[in-house]
Amino acid sequence: MLHVRSIWNGAISFGLVSIPIKVVNATESHSISFRQIHTEDGGRIRYRKFCELEDREVTQSEIGKGYEDADGTIVPITDDDLAQLPIPTAKTIEIVAFVPEDRIDPLQMDAAYYLAASGAPAAKPYTLLREALKRSNKVAIAKFALRGRERLGMLRVVGDAIAMHGLLWPDEVRAPEGVAPDVDVTVRDKELDLADALMDTLGEVDLEDLHDEYREAVEEVIAAKAAGEIPREAPEPAKAGKVLDLMAALEKSVREAKESRGEEPAEVTRLPQRKTTRATPKQTTGKKSTSATKKTAAKKTASAKKSTTKKTTSAKKTTSTSKTTAKKTTAKKTSAKKTSARKRSA
């Protein structure tokens, strides 16, 4: 850590205690940097800084800061102007409170720094603050100025050192409005059980075992092209099928996670399939057709029987009427004969 250049020198203000410190970066980037080139001949593309008034290229030592006013006027601002700002945080990390660590929203986390004790006189107060933070199980909230603006920070113990995380101001964190699904979704207990089983199967991981595979692949490509070789082709990504059944996807994930760890496939209970409202066309089979034909034939026979019954009933009624009429006619004739015989006797 001694070879790391400090980016800020000042002191921690802990009440009336002042702790001289140096601020150094706690992280480093391992990403691969690329240069812009002219694709036709491989020449470097460079950006040169020109002064608009003198129309000439200037060196870095000739470049300073300036604030552009609304009317286009440039107001020069020097490093001395910023160093003499009338605020206590210009050269001081001012501790303002101590809070439980879980009170800090991870969304506020920004860059991380180590605070190194500056010189032998700083060793005792530095150790005092470190041990006080350890015993309290709290973190310190502080204000400090860096790179032209006042910032918020969180001090915590890392090993035997004090680390500081830059924090965004609360009004710099956006609210998650419009991010969550805007439809009502019901998650069943069985689905949650399978999700829990998948989480348990995946288990924990040692972060030291994780590495940047993308960077390694880029380094392979660079090495191959530098040696005049053709970089190996990337395998085709597996085609992702459309997930129609969440339960099936969870079950398969649990099985694959188990198998990847050399464990027996997970035993899961399949939920009964939900009834779908999708209309499925009915398939017509020979049996159904025969049945339908029989039903139609039965209906026709019943109709014919009804018709026959009606005709028979009608015929019977006609016969009965005829007989009644005949009887009445015979009776009339008999009565007439009797009347005629009486007249003759008289």
What's the topology here?
Elements: E1 8-14, E2 17-25, E3 50-51, E4 56-57, E5 65-68, E6 74-77, H1 79-83, E7 92-100, E8 109-117, H2 123-136, E9 138-146, E10 149-158, E11 161-167, H3 189-202, H4 213-226, H5 246-260, H6 286-345
Parallel strand pairs: 1-7
Antiparallel strand pairs: 1-2, 2-8, 3-4, 5-6, 7-9, 8-11, 9-10, 10-11
Helix pairs in contact: 3-5
Structural description of this entry:
The protein is of the alpha+beta class. Among the domains are: 1-28 and 79-170, Ku70, Chain: A, Domain 2 (Beta Barrel), CATH 2.40.290; 189-233 and 244-260, no CATH class. The protein has six helices and eleven strands. The protein has helices at 79-83, 123-136, 189-202, 213-226, 246-260, 286-345; strands spanning 8-14, 17-25, 50-51, 56-57, 65-68, 74-77, 92-100, 109-117, 138-146, 149-158, 161-167. Strands 1-2-8-11-10-9-7 form a seven-stranded mixed beta barrel. It has a two-stranded antiparallel sheet with strand order 3-4. A two-stranded antiparallel ribbon has the order 5-6. A hairpin with a 2-residue loop joins strand 10 (149-158) and strand 11. Helix 3 (189-202) packs parallel to helix 5. The chain is extended and about 65 Å long. 9% of the residues are buried. The model is unreliable at 275-294 and 308-346 (pLDDT under 50).
